[in-house]
Design brief:
3 helices; golgi apparatus; signal; Cation-dependent Mannose-6-phosphate Receptor, Chain A; 12 strands; alpha+beta; autophagy; 6-stranded mixed β-sheet; 333 residues; single chain
């Protein structure tokens, strides 16, 4: 009786190469996702909501917490949906309600759905659509950008806050703050929609604190109308915030530089290992591309540093490529 033969060596090698290529692809994809998240999200400060390098808004002047509620008839009961909002700090716990019937501590925006029947109220859902567990919820990241253009030359402000995972779905809140000079400090937002499948809540919020005359420069400590002798867009402004970085958040030059160098190094190693394995059947240390260079790199760096030091100090004796201890990039015979 014949026994099943094992796969040929070439097939096994192709499988290993495919696995290596897939692993590198996943690594690069994860790095790209992380970089995209870093680019769009930045620490959120409600008193200094920077939309650009010249415009920041103080939303701490809004009277928090804000609650908007709606009750609808759903026979044989009624359903009440409440949205509690505090953009500056986590919502306080309700002492008159059981802990399990509330959003977790660290929530900034919470949807509470209650069923009312025969005079009894039961909380059926408590959804943390804007939440952070970092430092007890005192720190949260957000994406801030200009929205659509409105009448009178104003622009809305779009604010995105990430929430917790609820019912297996990542939650998110999208607020559109619209300039309304006549709005009170405790003006309420309007819920435009809540997509249960995507876990996304959309709110439209008319407020006077989103008007251009309430804007200030990022980091200047609050908004206000410009003085008579100037305008909100100072001609001497160089387009950067007080800390020298782009106020819209994201990575700086050196962060991107190191990230690109890292991705390039991973790609170089991956392609080199793939080529050495596929072309020469290498394994172990022999898989590393240009292994002689990497093996000699510590000595090259040492000799280069010694050469620079001798040039600066004016001494040319000893060390270096030809002096004692110098190996350069040559193998001993």
């Amino acid at each position: 009786m014949s026994t099943p033969s094992s796969p040929p060596r070439s097939l096994r090698e192709n499988r290993k190469v495919a696995l290596l290529a897939a692993s590198l692809l996943v690594l690069l994809q994860n790095a790209a996702v992380v970089s995209a998240a870093k680019q769009t999200l930045s620490p959120f400060d409600c008193s200094n909501v920077a939309v650009s390098s010249k415009h920041a808004f103080d939303l701490s002047k809004i009277s928090y917490p804000i609650r908007t509620a709606n009750t609808e008839s759903t026979p044989p009961s009624e359903t009440k949906t409440s949205i509690d909002i505090d953009l500056c700090k986590p919502l306080a716990a309700d002492p008159d309600r059981d802990e399990k019937d509330q959003c977790p501590r660290g929530t900034r925006i919470c949807i509470t759905i209650e069923t009312i029947k025969d005079g009894k109220t039961i909380v059926t859902q408590a959804i943390p659509v804007a939440y952070s567990g970092e430092s007890g919820g005192s720190k949260i990241d957000a994406k801030v950008e200009w929205g659509e253009e409105l009448e009178g030359g104003e622009k809305s402000i779009e604010l995105q806050l990430q929430g917790s995972t609820y019912a297996g779905r990542q939650q998110q809140a999208e607020l559109e703050l619209v300039c309304d000079p006549k709005a009170d400090a405790d003006s309420h937002p309007t819920a435009r929609s809540y997509d249960r499948a995507d876990g996304k809540l959309k709110l439209r919020w008319p407020t006077k604190f989103a008007c251009s005359d309430a804007a200030s420069k990022p980091g200047s400590g609050g908004g206000g109308s410009p003085s008579k002798g100037g305008s909100s867009d100072d001609d001497s402004n160089d387009g950067s915030s007080s800390d020298g970085s782009d106020s819209s958040g994201g990575w700086g030059f050196f962060s991107w530089l190191f990230f690109l160098l890292f991705v390039g190094f991973v790609g170089y190693m991956g392609m080199g290992m793939y080529n050495n394995y596929n072309q020469y059947g290498a394994s172990g240390w022999d898989l590393v591309p240009h292994k002689d260079f990497w093996r000699e790199s510590p000595y090259i760096a040492r000799d280069a540093a010694s050469h620079v030091w001798q040039t600066v100090s004016g001494s040319r004796n000893g060390g270096g490529f030809s002096g004692p201890g110098g190996r350069g990039a040559y193998e001993p015979v």
